[in-house]
Specification:
Strand order of the largest sheet: 1-3-5
Structural class: alpha/beta
Radius of gyration: 12 Å
Distance between the termini: 23 Å
CATH class: Alpha Beta
Number of domains: 1
Helix content: 40-55%
Oligomer: single chain
Number of helices: 3
Length: 88
């Protein structure tokens, strides 16, 4: 299973490249290493949520691993933790 490392700034400028990167791995189980993430913007959050729904619909695994505190806080504030399958 491939593991992709997310960059530190998941902001507007990272949204389109993130989407392209994820789509290149569609129909594969996929882990995302979020250990370096220090900032999560709304556009990248939308990309991640859409990807999670797509992978679920395809019957594939889509997981965030090694989630940084900043990323975990952003997911909690936006109430996206459960939708992305992130546990405490």
């Amino acid at each position: 299973m491939p593991t992709l490392s997310l960059g530190p700034a998941l902001d507007l400028s990272a949204a389109a490249p993130l989407r392209t990167l994820l789509l290149a791995h569609r129909f594969q189980d996929l882990d995302l290493d979020a250990s370096a993430v220090s900032r999560v913007g709304g556009q990248c959050l939308q990309v991640l949520l859409a990807a999670k729904r797509t992978w679920d619909a395809d019957g594939r695994v889509f997981r965030l691993l090694n989630i940084s505190d900043a990323c975990r806080d952003a997911l909690a504030i936006t109430q996206a933790r459960a939708q992305l399958g992130v546990e405490d």
